[in-house]
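Feature request, filed as a ticket because there's no other form

It would be nice if the structure record came with a short human-readable summary line next to the tokens. Right now we just get the raw output. Example of a typical job, pasted below so the devs can see what we mean:
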Amino acid sequence: MQRLLVFVVFSLVAAAVRAQLTISGGGAVVQESIGRSVTLTCTYSLTNTYTLREIKWYSLMDGDRESVLVYYPGQSVYTYGLYRNRASLVNTDAAAQVASLRLSNLQFSDNGTYECVVGASSSGSGAPQEASAEIELVALVAPNDPVIDDDFNSVTGNLTLTCTAYTGNPAAFLTWNRDGSPISADRADNITSWRGYLDAQSTISVTANSAGSSTFECVAQHPAFTSAQRASVTLGSPSVSAVSINPSPAPGQSLVELDDVILTCMTQEGIVPQPTYEWRHDAGSLPTSAQAYRNELKIFSAQVEDSGIYTCTASNSFGSDTGDASILITERVDNTPEGQTGSPVGSVVGGVVAALAFLVLVAIVAFAWWRSKERGDYNTAEQSPEEPEAVVSTEPEEEKDEEKLNLMEKKEEEPEEVKVETQGEGHAEVAKKPDPDQTA
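Raw output as currently delivered:
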């Protein structure tokens, strides 16, 4: 009995302590489109002698707790990382007891779970209190409009239709209608793309041979859509409405050779199975420069002989239809007057361009010469005197030999001078070399 009494008293005390701080807002799911502002509501209640100590917000991403905002009464709100200048408190007045978080310019990366933490202190002997609440934030990204792809097996007659709404958050919700009545999908998948968006896919299969002519509609619904988006296809035979020509000549005029011509076989949109197209030319085979792709025939650098009627045949397993167009291609005429190679304006412009080019070339040569002179590549006469040029004699060889012989004889007749140093006087006297015959 005593133990029971202690347990009851302890429980009452614990309940009284917990009652000092309560928080609300946990478990809510908030959705908002990216680019807008969103508010995560979190309120608290304090009783007795407790006052607000702090408000903190965290982002719980992949198990990690990332700080978003922290506030201490009497101080400024501090935000972190990618939330800087985007996160704020709705009300910092402690009397309001509101800890709601506002995020502006919502980003796709903001998608996830957030935690609101409120701390309180007692002015008496009570222990500090802390309470928290988790809120789910969904950053809405509107997916692209749905598209339908078909895959037809001509052997089994089975037609598979796949509806896809790309890049949404969350994934779009897809449903099917056949001739206005709902039908069940054979398979539905949500595929995560590399950026984290979700692609919604839904598939149905029908037997084309027994289905008859029917219209299948895919309906995509999403919180970011103001209304459902739809795509439809019709099971049946193709119908050719026209064959268009691009460029389209004016009435009574023709195309000019060397132009690129595109013929397009216009059929009803959304026909399944997807038609195949065949092109024919009434003059025989298609031009060698022609290329056919799906419902288009492109004729590159068309020639005069490419003129004629072109017929397009669109067909699938339900039937076929044809359409044709006639094109006339004439020779290209040079309208330049005889003797005139260009317009006067063009000649003037060409002359101006040539003059400017010449001036630029002169400036480049002058600048190169000046730079070379600055580096010393060109030396002046004072810096590097020129070598005297060799004198080339024009006298006959015989006269040269005779003159040389006379000079040698004259040199032998003149006595050789000998310099003799005279000691003590600091100068030299010149004496004639004695004649060997006289000495003897």
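Something like this underneath would help us a lot:
The first helix runs from residue 2 to 18.
Residues 418 and 431 are 5 Å apart (CA to CA).
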